[in-house]
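Quick log. Single chain, no ligands specified.
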Amino acid sequence: MLTDKEILNSAIQTLTIEVESLKGLIPLLNGDFIKSVKAVYNSKGRLIIGGIGKSANVAHKIVATLNSTGTPAVFMHAADAIHGDLGIVLEEDIVMILSNSGNSPEIRSLLPFIQSRGNRVIGVVGNLKSDLGTW
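-> predicted structure:
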């Protein structure tokens, strides 16, 4: 079993890493971020949030948080969307896709379907040069 000091040191180290990671996001806030915030704020529809794998887990959490604060949001799994669940997306909805790589086959397949429906897509991606990052 860890000592009390080791437990506290581990917690402090974890929080320090998380704080530094969050600080690293600050330079990435730009005009695209502003446009996305305005689009969601001014939308008459819902925010549909989806992803694959761990990104899908994060999307679930974001949906729960947004719904609890008054922003209508719905989770959509990207793999399920390309197999029929895209029907949950209504005309005025905005679709936010979370993906670290931005190049998973499910994401690549999903983007043209969303585009053909005329919905706005917001990508939250770890690789800005990916298919999702350049969409």
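The chain is about 45% helix and 15% strand.
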